[in-house]
Amino acid sequence: MPYTIEPLSKNQAIPSFYELLAPVYKILSHTPPLTAKGDRQLQMTFEHQLKALIFYHLEEHSSGSHLVQVLGKDDFAKREITPPDGIEKSSFFDAINHRGLDQLLYVFEKLQAVAAQTLPKKHAHLGDIVSIDGSLIDTVLSMHWADYRDGSKKAKAHLGFDINHSIPTRIFLTDGKGDERPFVSKILSPGQTGIMDRYYQCHKDFDLWQTEGKHFVCRIRKNTRKTVIDNRPVNSDSSVFYDATVRLGTPNVNQTKNPVRLVGYRVDGKKYWVATDRYDITAEEVAYIYKLRWDIETFFGWWKRHLKVYHLIARSQYGLMVQILAGLITYLLISIYCRNNFNEKVSIKRVRELRIKIKNEAGSFNFDTLTQNDFKEQRKNHDYAKT
Length: 387
Fold this sequence. Notes:
alpha+beta
């Protein structure tokens, strides 16, 4: 069943903000608890941490320090996001770099399932297709773990992107030199089809994925050696000029053990060679599936530009993963919000409208007249510990 948002309390101070967060509150009651190390009580609960990070990405803050400054001065942020006693800068960055990763992974996984139920499926006839790619993240020289090259430090995010619903599915983080190919098996589930560029070409992996029951549509290098087993007829009016069952690679060296289907097609005079184990679709559909791979590039560009997910607020690998997961969660929440309110996909137009709406609601609400009892009453409907 599609996800529906329950009505908000009529006393809710900022209804748009909590409408955005409503799917998360369905999940928080089942999230593994965040516990303090030692006897010292946590200054920030996981709920505070999550809301602060969503607020960071939604409002495009320029840095973690700027966010902490806003959390300490803005009436809306002080009432709706931070702990009752506020949050110190050192406590905020300690939380980002050392706590909440397991909880964020849990929320991301569950929210991704909610989004998949809510959003329409655009290419159902092509099966469960997932684009896979890596994205380099500029870091700083003090981040020694982010090995890339002399004088340059980078991390790499390895992402699976659900093409049918236009949402991220799984994420892994390595240093900038991290090999992308081993993450295909981790990102794909049996029955899914991974869409990959030629950098993922590996004949042993083609055999492995078939053994695992995971499908692939992967561009290969044009000079790859092929041994033809069977040719299929192609339509002279089609962009497809080649369709055959082959073994790829040099015999007794790197040849695939299992045959694969190889499709060749032209776009604007350029030839593309795509290997797949999908025999249930036409050659033209194989070519179309590979074209859909670019959706992940569009997502990376939009996500980085409009949610500022690569403006670093953490220096550790743990903290960077916390920040990236929070950015993905924010994107999923916006996707659900746009679908429920406008029957549309994510757009910067709707995100800007939401930002303005939240600010207008916060500006029109007199926080100074809100008594502590009123505050507790309006919060209880959204307090996952009490649901």
